[in-house]
């Protein structure tokens, strides 16, 4: 199970609807890019967060148009009771194919208001059936997928995440990454363009 948020962070955190401007900036320079990726958008999301649901399709469109990878990190807020198991399901589909994992996340956001802890599994089965797949009885028998979700959550804590969605344009640097936070998903494309107009990422 996900470790509980304690102290001041639990108090200030969320409602994910609180304005991002109310918080200090997280440190995006601590985010590492996968091998072979020099420029990407990194977004921390909570599948039960309404603000994330609104930002997600915009992020997909902006990154697709800009031609940069979108790297989604999970940050399931403690009080969102089905966000963590939903993230585990998303990881299961991502293991089958990265595109399928993103499609499942989009499905969850589209059906977010209908989903409850009791019917989350049913939604997973419905999505799987639409892909002509059968969802196994236990999608994470060894706990590896839950560990990946937890690792993303812990990363968010380490960089000082205080709200979701949290979005960065990140470029590979010499040592630390170069990063800029984007508060509005609709501004991701222009932020990517500014990075490209500046100094090229160092290899």
Oligomer: single chain
Strand order of the largest sheet: 2-1-3-4
Largest sheet: 4 strands, mixed
CATH fourth-tier homologous superfamily? Glutaredoxin
CATH class: Alpha Beta
The geometry reads as: globular
Q: Give the fraction of residues assigned to helices.
A: 40-55%
Task: Find the CATH topology.
Answer: Glutaredoxin
- The value of Rg in angstroms is 17 Å
- Average of per-residue pLDDT values: 88
How many strands in all?
Answer: 4
Instruction: Note the beta-strand portion.
Output: 5-15%
Question: By helix and strand content, what is the structural category?
Answer: alpha+beta
Give the low-pLDDT segments: 1-15, 17-22, 199-203
Order of helices and strands: HEHEHHHHEEH
CATH architecture: 3-Layer(aba) Sandwich
Amino- and carboxy-terminal Cα gap: 38 Å
Number of domains: 1
Q: Tell me the number of helical segments per DSSP (H or I, 4 or more residues long).
A: 7
Which properties best describe this structure?
alpha+beta, four-stranded mixed β-sheet, 203 residues, Glutaredoxin, disordered C terminus
Write up what this structure looks like:
There is one protein chain. Strand 3 (166-171) and strand 4 (178-182) form a beta hairpin. Helix 2 (50-66) packs across helix 7, helix 3 runs antiparallel to helix 4 and helix 3 (83-96) crosses helix 6. This protein has helices at residues 7-12, 50-66, 83-96, 98-110, 120-130, 144-158, 188-197; strands at residues 39-45, 70-74, 166-171, 178-182. The protein has seven helices and four strands, in the order H-E-H-E-H-H-H-H-E-E-H. It is globular. The protein has one domain: Glutaredoxin (3-Layer(aba) Sandwich). It is α+β, with helices and mostly antiparallel strands. A four-stranded mixed sheet has the order 2-1-3-4. The termini are far apart.
